[in-house]
## 1
Amino acid sequence: MESMKRKSKLMNLLIHVILILVSITMLIPFAWMFLTAFKSVTEATSVDPFVIFPKVWRTDAFTSVIKNMNFIVLYKNTLLLILFRVICAVLTATMAGYAFGRLHFKGRDFCFSLVLLQMMVPSQIFIIPQYLMVSKMGMLNTIFALVFPGFVTAFGTFLLRQGYMGLPNDLEEAARLDGCNIGQTFLYIMAPLTKSSMVALGIFTAVFAFKDLMWPMIVNTDKDMLVLSSALAKMQGQYVSKFPELMAASLIACIPMILLYIIFQKQFIEGIATSGGKL
Amino acid sequence: MTNTKKRKVTGRARSEFLWGWLFILPTMIGLVILNIIPIFQTLYQSFFKTGDFGRGNVFVGLDNYAQVFGDKEVWQSLINTFKYAIVEVPFSIIIALILAVLLNRKMRGRGFYRTIIFLPMVAAPAAIAMVWRWLYNSDFGLINNVFPIQVKWVSDPQIAVFSVAVIGIWSIIGYNMVLFIAGLQEIPHDFYEAAEIDGATGVKSFFYITIPLLSPTIFFVLVTRIISALQVFDLMYMVMDKSNPALEKTQSLVYLFYKYAFINKNMGYGSTIVILLLVITLIITAFQMIGQKKWVFYN
């Protein structure tokens, strides 16, 4: 008994060691980004002796990138992109998810198979036609162009449908007996019950809108219409060997999302778990 | 009596029809305009060559396809994409699965570890790629200095694609882990207790209980990871300079699609490349759907 206890204690220690090593691996790039941003170019590129911490914590790199990149505009564009994408996704997917999950009507199954089809096709298939549409509308370099492909979401529709299918029948029937029509039943009874799926979809949409690179790079090339990700891509060419500047800009771009994540980590992780896992 | 009942049913059915279509209408309009029609447009476009100096499209029949099949750059990028996927997918799944099992128990610091491991998921890929490029730098990058080696991580054509795959693994492990933890939490505890009575603990119960019961989740993660690994773009675009000598042996199919469609403005050829990607994705997914019968257990 004593030896078993000791064995499990040792096991526990081993597990912690593994997890700590993995955690360190996850953190090193972020730590390096942070430390390099405060270094001078000579410190950043010094080989011998190996410099981890900057001797003096300089902020030149930050002042330089803030002067050259309009972060207020970049944040604004990114925020608007995320906001509109989340609103559109949650609104359309909640309505369609309810209809697909709880109502019986002609044409439903065919329409739902189109939703599934969209999910199976690589998204690059849509990009050229979508770009040509935005271009023909004369809407390149607008917030509209950024949001455009996200007006509806097949994935979100699927996710919300799953959410509605998991709800019991009783409430809906009770509401119907009380004289609610389908719209009222949806609005007052059913939709509030899928709040967790909506939050999951919202977080999922926000994270992926923030991370998207190709689409914003294609449709918005004006300096004032870039988002954080495309601005970083553009900057890389201009600041070829100014590592502190590159790291400072990366840091400024990443920090808001990382802070949001740290504050709402439970919702983030559960959101991804419910939205990505159940099929 | 029967008459009124019948009328009630049809009334209900009509109302479900009207509300149903009202609710799906925005989604369906969007889906048709943004996705369904574009599938056919891309297919249509793949039979055209974009005229020089923007002079409209010229119908070339199957020329683009013939060109794709004879294009060494396309085949090389397909090989690169497979190399990337063959490294990224299994490692990101196996490591994530082990971490999920370790973190599924009650233990101190569980939330903390999960938070850290998931962190790369919320960073912009452009920023991640930049810092990794910096870590990989052959002269003064962290990796070559911590270990006394001189490896050209991202400019040696032999290894650059694998170096990029390591970044891919690093960024996606947390995501896979969260999906696995969600799956593990649905395995009833009784199974483990019963197995323990039969003498199966630790590694044995992992292989005889956890893996089979988690196989639907593993299958789902596998299918979705392969599909997205085949679409790798951001990392290659950010890590590989246009002047990088390893570019040719590293660029992925989607990178090539982007290059042809939006840099060289040859949307016809770009469309053909992406149709090739679609066909490959469908074939691989179909094989997995057939293969799953052998190892995925649904109860």
Note: Residues 43 and 51 of chain A are 7 Å apart (CA to CA).
## 2
Amino acid sequence: MKVNDVILKTVVRFVVFIVFTLGVYLFFAGHNAPGGGFIGGLVLGSGIVLLYITYDIETVHKGMPFDFKRVAALGVLLATGTAVASLFFDAPFLTQTDGYFDIPLLGEKHLSTVTIFEAGVALTVVGTLVTIILNISEDE
Amino acid sequence: MIVVLSILLPFLAAALIPFIYRRFKSIHLGWFILVVPVVLFSFLATYISRIARGETFIYTFEWIPSFGINITTYLDGLSMIFALLITGVGSLVILYSIFYLSKKESLHHFYCYLLLFMGAMLGVVLSDNLMVLYAFWELTSVSSFLLIAFWHHRKASRAGARKAMTITVSGGVAMLAGFLMLYVASGTFSIREILTNLDVVQGSGYFVPAMCLVLLGAFTKSAQFPFHIWLPDAMEAPTPVSAYLHSATMVKAGIYLVARTTPIFGGHEVWFWAVSGVGLMTLFWGSFNAVRQFDLKALLAYSTISQLGLIMSLFGLGSAALHFGYTAESVIYTQATFAALFHLINHSTFKGALFMMVGIVDHEVGTRDIRRLGGLMALMPFTFTIAVIGSFSMAGLPPFNGFLSKEMFFAATLKITQLDIFSLDSFGLVFPIVAWIASIFTFIYCVIIVMRTFFGKLQPDRLEKPPHEAPIGMLIPPYILIALVIGIFIFPNVLGHYILSPAMASIYPTFPSTEEMTPHIAAWHGYINSELIMTFGVVIVGIFLYKTLKKWRPMYQLIPPNYTLNGIYERVIGSGEHYSGTITNRYMNGNLTYYFIYIYVVFVGILAGYMIYADLFSWNPANDSVIEPYELILVFVMIAAAVAILFAKHRITTVLLNGVLGYSVAFFFVVFRAPDLALTQLVVESVTTALFLLSFKFLPELQPEKVSKAWKFTKATISIAVGATVTLIGLAVMNYDKFEPISAYFEDAYNLAGGKNIVNTILGDFRAFDTMLEVVVLFIAGLGVYTLIKLKAKKGDTDVESK
């Protein structure tokens, strides 16, 4: 998009951080409240798409020099990797575990391996979403 | 445990290839890969003496215990032979391939496929569980498909790969059905457990069908008549592959299966006749057809077919021993099995060497056509030596190992005529006669290999390269093999005692000792006996027929090409392609409207039809909650938006109206307290709308439809029917009580999965397997979109066929 839309650019500058924050929040909230890897990933992905729509690809690439195909691949590896990892602990495929840990400064927190799995889901969603949208819009 | 790891090692190595390939570009990748089979071979070799003492090694790794599917490795005498062949011949073939394949080829693909194949093959021979065996079995088909099609820019390679895959995989599926029947009959997938409980299986009605289906798998894999037609076409693969897969290992998987299941099925009349009969037919047909070939590799392919037939028929003959149970006489029949195992090893040595010899000729001269070859003896003396020793061993001449096993084969066919079970008293004579005739043809093609390639006149103008001797690295592997050919002839009993005898114990587990079943092999086995006379006859008649080859060769033209098995295969596949193409073109006509009509008509027909048939429509509003006014407003908005889409003039209007529908659905989710769904719906709706707008400018302006009233009416009817069906299903679900609801299980989510959000615990824990695979599917779909958009062939690109 060649049009220099000042209002859009200015608004997006602030909105994008809100969207990203919401995405990260949703990702972590998913365990006990609405949210989760899929939605968190979608929100993050749509935030990135918003950036791409507002600014051009080169500018955004300078800020986020990721190859989103690799992000998606990393996500798949994480998701399948946590599934396989349980085998090394002599537990059936895809066993997840959780527990309460006392972390300095943060206090007692509930940590779970599901988070890693969900991170894989989120990364795949982000990577695939951005890859598809970038390629469709790029092709002129 | 360590045996499990040895199956895994090739797969792990295959996964490492991309990293090694990038890092060490200057070194031929094969040197790294060579380590894998050499390590495995040495590791297995340390077990030989313990296996010979009668030990077996079992390790169970639980996989799906609820279905009795566990990765159980079982190392005994029989799996030992095959595992040694796979790793031993594998090492030599990889060493050979280092010199055969130049670095310009896509070596990382090649070795990746080869390692996959090696691991799969080890998995087949070391698995005790039928399901695991089946999985590895099909993996060998897939990896050999990739290897045959390695030069995939050639049409013949692709066709050959497809043919091999079609035939072996259909056989494999039949085998799967057979395994399932065995499971139903015995209640276990473990071969050893089936053996402990044999009476039940043999008494079951599934016994004979299961046997036939398992045999189908074995016959297709081992290229037995009439499924042998894939093997000659598979010769499109690079020669190291042919040497490995199509002579030493993969085609022997079928033989392994027959040997492995002999204790279950052997002794039954159907088994005896099927295995020995098909084997004999294959033996004859393979050797008969080998003589007519002009391509050296095709000739070897047919010879492999015939030799596999020989081994197969010997296993069939040997299975007769199980009919009686153990008696003093059984030893006579078990010797056929012994000969089969012996020939199995011998065949791997001489045929591996011969394939490598042909590869050398092809590599150094540029052709494998015997009409263009000749007179290479003086120019390639080392290669000539391989050819002579390999061929003479194959023809069953002394002083090579093929002679010993061939004599034992003759002896076994002669002995079987004295048996008076399975109506052998009337048909038994067929065995020695067919065996003898087939051996004559074997002799003839062996002579052809040597004479037409190395003797006669050199035709330098018909060769593509000036002939010269191969580099030393290409000669070492076949020389090791022919050293074995001679070594086994001199010391056959070492092999007999350490390798073959423990395998006999696996095939005849009910027989008390293997020592009686292990004959003393001797090159000079008694005075002039009938076997030796048969061999003399083979040589004399063979030489005579070779001299008069030109006179009787036209005989092969008698069968019109349309009526050969290959012709039939081509026609079946061809017409299948033609008709499926016609049908596909009829419904995939490129018009989206039609696709939707097909989908919806089927959808309404099946769902509404079934619901009417089963009388499932029921609507009982008594239990429903009160409809609030704002819900009514939402419904009204949705209806208005949906109807408005129908009358929209511009595409952008339809996109926005569609968005209204989506957001209203999200609102409903909010109203009905499904925040997760609402969130997802909102984001997805936004993203799809954005996507739509992005691709908006590439889409043409909406055209007013110019169609007849009747057609419009039809489409409206279908739309309304779909809507009505979905609505009615929704209403009927409320009163459906055929299944117990599963929601109670998830109420305990916090205790079971440690999360308060049920939706997420379902996604991430209870049904995480679905989620994992969905992520993979999403990724693959994304890659698919990427490739479709990015990797379009440019207009100037040359046709890949012509590369």
Note: Chain B touches chain A at residues 62, 675-676, 679-680, 683-684, 686-687, 690-691, 694-695, 753-757, 759-760, 763-765, 768-769, 771-772, 775-776, 778-779, 781-783, 785-786, 789-790 (CB under 8 Å).
